[in-house]
Amino acid sequence: xxxxxxxxxxxxxxxxxxxxxxxxxxxxxxxxxxxxxxxxxxxxxxxxxxxxxxxxxxxxxxxxxxxxxxxxxxxxxxxxxxxxxxxxxxxxxxxxxxxxxxxxxxxxxxxxxxxxxxxxxxxxxxxxxxxxxxxxxxxxxxxxxxxxxxxxxxxxxxxxxxxxxxxxxxxxxxxxxxxxxxxxxxxxxxxxxxxxxxxxxxxxxxxxxxxxxxxxxxxxxxxxxxxxxxxxxxxxxxxxxxxxxxxxxxxxxxxxxxxxxxxxxxxxxxxxxxxxxxxxxxxxxxxxxxxxxxxxxxxxxxxxxxxxxxxxxxxxxxxxx
Length: 321
Fold this sequence. Notes:
Blueprint: H1 3-8, H2 19-35, H3 43-90, H4 92-99, H5 105-110, H6 116-119, H7 126-139, H8 141-144, H9 146-201, H10 206-210, E1 227-233, E2 238-243, E3 251-256, E4 263-268, E5 279-281, E6 286-290, E7 301-306, E8 313-320
Antiparallel strand pairs: 1-8, 2-7, 3-6, 3-8, 4-5, 4-7
Helix pairs in contact: 2-3, 2-9, 3-9, 7-9
């Protein structure tokens, strides 16, 4: 494997490259190939990359659309639950009146556990309760009258229909996600294949070959100078160290210079957010880890929190690119 290949191949297989960035980078390379295809030597790779890019582009748009549809179906599903709750509450008195009172056998069959059972119904309980209401409405069909009977009987099928629609859309989304993964792999493989084509074309001229790729499109790089911060955090308090944002390859070095206080340090999207991921550092300890070790890189606020109830915590933090 050439130096150029060793350098370039990892750029297309990293887990931190999101599909839209891979798509944008692929489009840049494809346009460069087309622009420089004066003698037709790139015809085959252009065709292959165009097909892979088209498929990924369709997948990205299609999944967004299907996720929206799934969300809409979930709302319809919730609406059936809400309508069922409301109806069984609003019609409680009407049902009692139709069946001869609150103490009749018919009313107790509808409300064996009182109204609360319907007011607090969950999706898990919907199949049981809607079937019960349908069966009891059928038993007392004449007393309830056609309109009320049909309304009460309709909830079981409405629930089934909403669940079927939701499951269908979930299946479509899962299928679409599988297709997207396959097309991401196809684009990655074709871009790596492009490396070999360019190596042959430019006879090992790395500098010329790399002009066909814009790696800034793959990563959301944030440039900031090397920084070294130090300070103190009072007991049971927290302090925002910076609001910078970090790249996937950035490191954070942290030292707990205290003798009697432990702190945690973490990345969050908002300064007041509670962390879902953090690093705890005992007195006198030091670590150097990738920024992603401290939290999701979507978060830009680096926060240090003293978890001692009594003692002040002191620290030294460095950002390394």
